[in-house]
Amino acid sequence: MATLRDIKSRIKGVTxxxxxxxxxxxxxxARLRRAQENIINARPYSxxxxxxxxxxxxxxxGSANPLFEEREVESIAIVVVTSDRGLCGSFNMNVIRxxxxxxxxxxxHLKSNGKLSLYCVGKKGVDHFKKxxxxxxxxxxxxxSDLNFEFASTLTTELKQKFLNxxxxxxxxxxxxxxxxxxxVTIHKQILPISRFESESNEHLxxxxxxxxxxxPDKKSxxxxxxxxxxxxxxxxxxxxxxxxxLGARMTAMDMATENAKEMIRTLNILYNKERQAAIxxxxxxxxxxxxxxxxx
Length: 297
Prior knowledge:
alpha/beta
């Protein structure tokens, strides 16, 4: 049975842990506000590029750009976006498990042939897949400490070039999409080949055709110019989404840890008081027994 000193030491240890988890929750909450603003500001840009491309391609009646080329998947690249740090619940394992299930269900033969490449953004994904039988082509730990658009642009350019050179036939990004502080959804987003944009309604297309737009230099050149921007926006919003989702998951996890520590401290205090009361009762009984023994003597 634990002594009073042991129980008191445990209470002090749990109290110190509670202070740490509470501080981490507050830090995550402060960073989350900024991360939310970043992803909210980035989404309209991404949507607008997709809308402009959709309208241009509809007027142009399709596009022969090689980034649209659907071909038999003989090689694939998967971009795995995790966090650099832990203490965020099941955030990282959800992505890692989803990637492994995707590979086992659809691309196990490509993995066996060495035709499946992983690009791991975030230390947790790097650490996991590096220790296992996976072809780790890209390793990017420590990115989220200074997340910037240049990284997304460089990574997208590399993947696009390898797709055009037929080194990859498909590129997929797997990440956690930020829905709310308590909800993150694991997403598989195919970025290459670019999926055909949803067609607008016939009425809207007819309206576009009746308007005499002036395109400079021409529609095809504009489409070819916007497609790489669209790709970069897709990767950039994926990284921003993942970072916001990570902070939300950590904030929730630290809040739960703080509450659990509070409950543990309450339980330990009750145990301490019971043990202390029992010790006092035992001492009183011994004193009374000794007094009675002296009286009888």
